[in-house]
Amino acid sequence: TGTNSSYQSSGINAEYGHGNKLVIPDGLRREDFLRWMYKLPDTQTPAWLGLPNNADQVILQTKANTFIQKLLKMQAVTDDEDLAYQDVESQKNKSVIGAASRPQWMKNLATSVTEWLNIIPKEELAALKRTVENIKDPLYRFFERECTIGRNLLKTVLTDLNDVAQVCDLKKKQTNYIRGLLSDLQKGIVPKSWVRYTIPGGVTINPWIIDFSERIRQLHKIVAAAQKGQTALKELTVWLGGLFSQEAYFTATRQSVAQCKGYSLEELKLQVSVHSSAVDLDSSSFGMSGLKLMGAVHANGKLAITEDIMTDLVYTKISWVRDQDMEKRSGKQITLPVYLNNTRTTLVETLKFCTDQDKFYERGVAILCTPLS
Description:
By secondary structure, the protein is α+β, with helices and mostly antiparallel strands. It is built from eight helices and nine strands.
């Protein structure tokens, strides 16, 4: 199905094509239309269907990412894969489990585990201390839950990796649980016991480790801010994609403003602005970073269509305000969905932006919390 703009008598609009416009034939006979049809170019721009001209690049990029993920898994699977299920004790060892030579897959896995342990922060994540005052704050309670999830998962990941490292060094016996870890990790699969928050299907272990490490570092910043007081915690710039529950963050900020101002939740509406750096925040505002804008660019306070696949929203300020207090903005506004990742299966929130253009929905413009894929 094409767009109306693709079939105007004056030809395709300049924004839809490259070079000369495509115009319908002047003749009225069947032969005239057939002659015109046979002269059509072999390559057709995706703009005829209302898609951006770089739509093919987006598809190829997605296919390339999928191919690389599968290739990494194949490289990890060797002819010795079945050895992962063998009991090391049966290999007639002399030390705790043996002096027998290790299979190649085990040596490779030992190297990978060492690299992962160097990436993941080792410092224990402290628990947020409750007081009579801060426990009343919805935002504090949200961050407390985030830190609890992160602390428990960090303990599990570090314990599992250390156990795998000892097994690979023939210093510890295997258990059924460790065999499962060995099987998953050597294939590049994230173990099920580690998946305690939403991640894209098929994501491999290496990008997951990097993403998880950044989440833990953010939690350390949250703990440090909480120790300074509620004001520092509120003014902290949050990497939205690095939270375990992004929807709950929006809910907590809304509840926090309603409690502070004495408004009802129904009165508060979400307002957003994008900046090139951090800005001052009032009692109704919060700062976010790390958002990705697909198919558009934000410049001079407005959204615009771009041929770039993805652009960064350096600093995003959200404010919860009442209708009568909301800043009046001239021109059109577009509501864009905020998705967790590029699979676009988890909708986090919707945000309104000013713009002078159309066709954002036809281009599939959206905001992503994390580029993890």
